[in-house]
């Protein structure tokens, strides 16, 4: 698998002239640990990370620009780079994301989350969300076991009564990706 197959795009990026405050707000707003810094030609010249933002804040960098605190040099990869190589570089250098370039121009970013996405099926994601919904409903008592296959959710466990079965079924059907629900009563052991 190659970078172009899993990279995130369009890329949220900043210019070196962007204020640290604005860049930090963008990191928080988008939930990123870091983002590329590009020049006017969209060429990657640095990375601005949460650590850089904190460094600027603790240094009293009010009014500072990204150029003063960005991390350089930057590891970039091409769209044709194998994701195994990107993963190894990210682990070895403790990188959270790698900018992807084509002819030197930023076209995407591969994050740790992007690398994990192919390993997790949509059924796994649906099961995780459904499990969290049911855990919240039950008050974290761990009442039911959830399995999802091709969108079909099977919820096994003990139900207090028919009303609870209907509520659990309705909650399950409210989760995006659930196409059907089967409830199996299994007494506690």
Automatic annotation (TrEMBL):
Coiled coil: none annotated. Residues 122-189 form the BON domain. Residues 7-65, 70-125 form the CBS domain. The keyword Glycoprotein does not apply. The keyword Kinase does not apply. Keywords: CBS domain. SUPFAM superfamilies: CBS-domain pair. PANTHER family: CBS DOMAIN-CONTAINING PROTEIN, CBS DOMAIN-CONTAINING PROTEIN CBSX3, MITOCHONDRIAL. This is CBS domain-containing protein. It comes from Amycolatopsis tucumanensis. The lineage of its organism: Bacteria, Bacillati, Actinomycetota, Actinomycetes, Pseudonocardiales.
């Amino acid at each position: 698998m190659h970078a172009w197959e899993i990279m995130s795009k369009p890329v949220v990026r900043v210019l070196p002239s962007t204020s640290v405050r604005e860049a930090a707000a963008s990191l928080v707003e988008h939930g990123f640990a870091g983002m590329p810094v590009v020049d006017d030609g969209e060429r990657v010249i640095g990375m601005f990370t949460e650590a850089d933002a904190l460094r600027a804040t603790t240094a009293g960098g009010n009014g500072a620009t990204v150029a003063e605190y960005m991390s350089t040099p930057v590891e970039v990869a091409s769209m044709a780079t194998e994701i195994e190589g990107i993963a190894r570089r990210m682990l070895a250098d403790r990188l959270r994301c790698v900018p992807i370039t084509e002819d030197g121009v930023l076209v995407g970013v591969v994050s740790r989350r992007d690398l994990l996405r192919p390993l997790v099926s949509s059924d796994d994601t649906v099961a995780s969300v459904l499990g969290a919904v049911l855990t919240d409903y039950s008050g974290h008592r761990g009442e039911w076991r959830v399995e999802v296959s091709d969108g079909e959710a099977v919820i096994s466990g003990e139900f207090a009564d028919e009303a609870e079965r209907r509520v659990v079924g309705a909650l399950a059907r409210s989760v995006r990706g659930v196409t059907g629900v089967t409830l199996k009563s299994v007494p506690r052991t």
